[in-house]
Amino acid sequence: MIQIENVSLVRGGAKILSDVSLHIPEKGLVAMVGPNGAGKSSLLSLIGRLQPLQSGRISVAGLPVDATPSRELAKILAILRQDPAPASRLKVRELVGFGRFPHSRGRLTAEDRAVVDAALADFALTALADRFVETLSGGQRQRALVAMALAQDTPVLLLDEPLNNLDMPNARDLMRRLRRVVDERGRTVLAVLHDLNHAAAYADRIVAMKDGGVAADGSPRDLLTPDMLESVFGHRMRVAEIDGAPVVLHHL
Ligand SMILES: Nc1ncnc2c1ncn2[C@@H]1O[C@H](COP(=O)(O)OP(=O)(O)OP(=O)(O)O)[C@@H](O)[C@H]1O
Ligand SMILES: [Mg+2]
Q: Which intervals of the chain form a coiled coil (predicted)?
């Protein structure tokens, strides 16, 4: 579904990504982890064409991202940025409605409005629908941004730190919702996560990035070992097992 071949990126004279190749098949939840500055957001922004590809190839659903019209790409791929530009004078319902633009060209149909209403309800935003986005709390705003990305209803979702600002129940709810869109609707989700335990509990696969490259790639069970975590994060962590799944004790 997402094919990345020999992608490198240089910014300000520094090598940000070095010859990254990665294949993400259809239908699955892939967590991307790695230390600050590893290149996670840079790679996502190249897949989502938020910045131009300098070298290598990236295709999504067989379409080369650098040669596909934006409108067409927006029907295949939704991207949640790590630090979206603040939405000014926009109500929550309008923000979530933006997710429908690739489908409706700006004039929402009854079906679009139904999708928006469902997304608002799913993210407990119904009571906030007529509030201006800038008046929301950090976690409420994050929920609205994620709701917008999901309302786009694309086969591929790229989410850069979707759990930012979410409290524990909301983080768990979102991970469960992502799991459901994968299992019930066959979506392909690539999500950057800093919480290794959310990755362990919900992802099919973890891709660990370090220094602009893929340092490790595998199932949560294979990947989340003290040695692997130390080599990726430079910090030794303990790993326990609860109900057969790895749990990382990063604070001990
Ligand atoms: N426009 C730019 N000019 C110069 N360097 C940049 C630019 N954008 C990103 N970088 C550098 O590229 C590296 C990778 O950044 P990136 O945002 O991809 O990291 P990340 O893995 O997403 O980190 P984080 O977990 O902190 O979000 C960092 O060292 C960053 O400073
Ligand atoms: Mg980032």
A: none
CA dist., res. 216 & res. 214, Å (int): 6
Task: Tell which atom from ligand 1 comes closest to the C-alpha of 194.
Answer: 25
Closest C-alpha residue for ligand 1 atom 28: 37
Nearest to 146 by CA among 172, 178, 115, 169: 178
Structure letter (DSSP) for residue 235: S
pLDDT in tens, the chain (252 residues): 999 999 999 999 999 999 999 999 999 999 999 999 999 999 999 999 999 999 999 999 999 999 999 989 999 999 999 988 877 799 999 999 999 988 887 788 999 999 999 999 999 999 999 999 999 999 999 999 999 999 999 999 999 999 999 999 999 999 999 999 999 999 999 999 999 999 999 999 999 999 999 999 999 999 999 999 999 999 999 999 998 889 999 887
**Per-domain residue ranges of the chain:** 2-225
C-alpha dist (Å) from residue 159 to 43, 79, 125, 182, 228: 12, 6, 19, 14, 24
Residue 15, number of CB atoms within 10 A of its CB: 14
Q: Which CATH class is domain 2-225?
A: alpha beta
38 Cβ below 6 A of ligand 1:
yes
Reference 53, options 44, 61, 62; nearest CA is 44
Q: Does ligand 1 lie within 6 Å of residue 188's CB atom?
A: no
